[in-house]
Amino acid sequence: MEHENNDPSPPVRNRRGTKSTLYVVYFVAFMDLFAVSMLTPLMRKQNLDLGSSYTTAGIIGSVYGATQLFSSPLVGDWSDRLGRTYVMSLTTFLTAIGYFILAASQWLPLVFLARAICGCFKHTQTLTKAYLADLDHHTEHEDNGRGGDLGNAPQRDRPTLGESFGPFMAISTSGFVIGPIVGGHVAELDSGFQIVCLTVVVIFLFNAFIIRHLPTINRPIHTTESGSPSPRAAITFRETVVDNYDIFLLQLLVSLSILIVRTNYVQHVHDNFGISIKWAGYLTSYQALLGVLGSSCVSSRIMNYSFCKHTPTLVLYTTILLSASVVGIAYTSNLTIYILSLTVLNFMTPFSRIANLRQLLERSESPAHHGALMGTGQSVGSLCRLSSSFLSGLAQDYAQHGPEMISVACTAAALGQILFMNRSSR
Question: What's the DSSP call for residue 11?
Answer without folding.
Answer: B
